[in-house]
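Researcher: Batch entry, complex prediction.
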Amino acid sequence: MTSERIYEKLLPIIQTYLPEDVSKEAVNRESDLTRELNINSAHLVDIVLDVEDQFDIEFANEDMEQLRTLNDAIGIIMRKVGER
Amino acid sequence: MAHFQHILDQLPYSEPFRFVDSLEAVSESGVEGRYRFGEDAYFYKGHFKGNPITPGVILTECMAQIGVVCLGIFLLSEAASDGTQIALSHHEVDFYLPVYPGETVRVISEKEYFRFQKLQCKVKMLNEKGELVCKGVISGMVVK
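Model: Structure tokens for the complex:
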């Protein structure tokens, strides 16, 4: 799966959990999920659980620790989908 | 019942904001506990004027303390370090029946998942007749 295809599937998941004061257009590949998009730690877990369902993969605690931006998520997803 | 005392001892609440009397069952998958709303609880003075009914936020708090915090303490019992707390992160509750002063309620919680420090549970509260008082989904985050 290409990084572009993963981004297309990831974007709506992220947008679901944006706080009301963050516009959907503000999201890009470099966006920091918690610091820039203001997603709280509980919703970060929701995002990971939705990503796991969407891509049929499983995140480990180490993956969670590395997760800061959408690009980080795309990297983790690409690796896991490749290993599957 | 007494063997759940170590969980009750770790609850970070005290009067007048502790809404757990006892735990009947605790396992990896869920918890069941009870609380009696004493007639002299402070909130009955104002909720409502001359017509005391337990506030919905207090019922929600009772469900969270038994259903999420007690279960969280149990699930963390081996991993928990000093200073670990469980912070409410989300709740969505529907209410069906009022709870009057002096009533005892039973809270039954089923774990939906506990991952990456987030514990989410399906929780319901029943009155002494076994009727549904309220139910919903409550989640909390383990924080240090």
